[in-house]
Structure formats: structure tokens, C-alpha cells
Amino acid sequence: MSKLVWIDGRLTPRDQARISVFDHGLLYGDGVFEGLRQYNGRVFRQEAHLHRLFASAHAIRLEIPLNRQELSQAIDQTIAANALKECYVRVIVTRGVGALGISPIKCGKPSVIIIADGIELYPPETYRSGLEIITASTIRTPPAALSPKIKSLNYLNNILGKWEAIDAGVPEAVMLNHLGYVCECTAVNIFIVCGPELATPPEESGILLGVTRGVVLELAGACGLPARERNLTRYDLYNADECFLTGTGAEVAPVIGIDRRLIGNGAVGPVTKKLMAMFHEYVRRAS
Ligand SMILES: Cc1ncc(COP(=O)(O)O)c(C=O)c1O
């Protein structure tokens, strides 16, 4: 059975799913998106993801032509049409078709696209063995220029960071902010374990406030692990006992080396293992 993609209310076979070359989402990256995940037949934290999507759209003056309930139904419809129980869901809202030139007032109606599929951010074996990552020289877009809270269709800043990872032969790169503090990786948030404490960069460092990051902070609280949102330097990463990444696509991914320094003893640490196990148990129970 061919996979079906939802485009503006119609389910279309994947190989026939098309948008116009005059859509400003394609021409200028003018649009927003969201990545959600269904576990055990339910979309995990759907409300938080839809809240972020609508907030991103509001920030760029893009009116989503569906309300939250309609969008939620469209997501369910897409997943059901593809007979999926566990999957990744991409919701995209573009500015729509318009004349050339960046002005958004040249566009007609925004388009909504929903794709339900699998996703594999890192090689599966690295969830057992751990990832080696690098620090990118490309800094994260400063919040004063473009808020990283907007999950826009323009990921060039992150893609440049990803190229640096690829060139270094590793799957991921840490991006620093304009002040030199650790921000996040190219499409995932970062945590370290230092002694008895979990630490992750704060909102003000210029991160996308990850839904998975929030869940991990909640799980840490539930198991009595102190967690702090604070500015981190590369020194803090290098000297951490453990490190891991979080994201809807990546879930909780362990890191065992950064910039050719071993993290801890170079093996996936006990706190990371515990949080990974808690996360997998929680998402299937609580979606
Ligand atoms: C830049 C960036 N940071 C962090 C994340 C992780 O966010 P979430 O846990 O909500 O998927 C994403 C997810 O796509 C992202 O694009």
C-alpha cells in the first residue's frame, strides 16, 4: 500500500503528493512546521506540539486555516489512513502560493501538509553504544535576529551545523550561541549529568524549547534527580559525567564523546540509561 500524505484536506499517494513551485514555503522558507510522534496508538503530547505550531505561526503572522481540533483530527486521519500504530508525524504550514518576491501579502491561502512516516535520526546501535559529536563553528541564530522558538521552514543555520558534523564523520554537532555558551544541537536539545545534578541550557540561551526536553525535566523531577537550567560552556560538556540529547525524532540519545574528549568513562552512563528507560516506558503509557 502506498503511503498517503494529507494536503489541504485530501489524502494523496506519496508519489503524487505535490505543492506548487510558487509556494512561498519553497521559495523563501516562509512557513512553520512541527514534528510529533505517535506511540502505542496515541500522539504523544499533541497539545504541546500544536501549541508550539500555533505560536510559531502567530509569530510570523501566518494564519493556519484549521483550528486545533480540526488539525488534530487531520493528524489522526492521516495516521489511520496509513494504518500506523507508532510513527513520526510532520505537520507543515506554508504561506501558500504567491507571486515572486518575498512579500507575504502576495500569497493566497496557506497550505497544510501532514506526513506520517518513520524517522531515524541516528544509527540504531548508537542508542546502546553512544554518539560521538563535535562542536560546530557555526553559531545558532541569535534570538534578537530570529527567535529560535519559531520552528520555521528555514533550517539553514542548523543545516550548516549538520554539515560540520558530517565533515567530521560524526552524526551530530553542538551549536553555541552568540555569547559562546552551549545552545543545542542541530535539531535536538542537550543535557549533561554533573555529579548529582542534571543540567541543560536555559530558554534564554536561544534554544528551541523542546517538548522532549520538558518531558525529561519532568521525569528527572519524578525520580528525585535535581535538574537545573543553566548556561553551560564547552568545558562543562567536556568534564560532564554523562551527556545525552533529546528530541521527538531522536528521543533520548546518549553521547559518549565530544570534540575527541571522552565523556565520563566513555560508556553510556547510569543516569542516561535510567532516563532512557523511563522515557520509553512513559511515552507508551502516557501519550
Ligand atoms: C532546533 C531544535 N531543537 C530542539 C528540538 C527538539 O524539540 P522536540 O523535543 O520538541 O522535538 C528540535 C526538534 O525538531 C529542533 O528542531
Report the bound ligands by name, code or SMILES. pyridoxal-5'-phosphate
Tell me the structural class. alpha+beta
- Order of helical and strand elements: EEHEEHHEEHEHEEEEHEHEEEH
Shape call = globular
What is the name of the CATH class of the largest domain? Alpha Beta
The amount of helix comes to 25-40%
Give the N-to-C terminal Cα separation. 27 Å
Beta-strand percent range: 25-35%
Total beta strands? 15
As for the number of domains, it is 2
**Biggest sheet statistics:** 9 strands, mixed
- Poorly predicted regions: none
Question: What is the name of the CATH topology of the largest domain?
Answer: D-amino Acid Aminotransferase, Chain A, domain 2
Task: State the CATH architecture of the largest domain.
Answer: Alpha-Beta Barrel
What's the overall average pLDDT, rounded? 97
Spell out the CATH superfamily of the largest domain. D-amino Acid Aminotransferase, subunit A, domain 2
Global Rg: 19 Å
The number of helical segments is 8
